[in-house]
Amino acid sequence: MGFFPQLLQKEPSRRLGSGPGGGDDVKRHKWFQSINWKKVEARELQPKFKPDVTGKDCTANFDKCWTTMAPDDSPAPTPTAGEHFQGYTYIAPNPWLPSG
């Protein structure tokens, strides 16, 4: 099974990283095989790209189509808004029961 399907398992206890190895299972996945986690933890890695930011409101790194767009409030959902999720199920975690 691929990386993303392992993360997106419907049952939380079956997801990558939820087993006895925890986050180490995620770090050992082949998706991250080129990552030196000791250097990450020691903050010794330099980013491959560091954007120029001139201030907290700087938008220079965003396409103009997004930064010139007029703000629009999100409309209230319609009764048919959930039709895209037919057949989707969600298992909410129960904090009082052990998972597994």
TrEMBL record:
Annotated Gene3D superfamilies: Phosphorylase Kinase, domain 1, Transferase(Phosphotransferase) domain 1
Disordered as annotated region, ranges: 1-27
SUPFAM superfamilies, per the entry: Protein kinase-like (PK-like)
GO molecular function terms listed in the Swiss-Prot or TrEMBL record: ATP binding; protein serine/threonine kinase activity
Superkingdom as given in the UniProt entry: Eukaryota
Keywords tagged on the record: ATP-binding, Kinase, Nucleotide-binding, Serine/threonine-protein kinase, Transferase
Keyword Metal-binding part of the UniProt annotation: no
Domain AGC-kinase C-terminal: 33-100
Pfam hit, one: Pkinase_C
Protein's UniProt name: Uncharacterized protein MANES_06G098900
Organism expressing this protein natively: Rhizophora mucronata
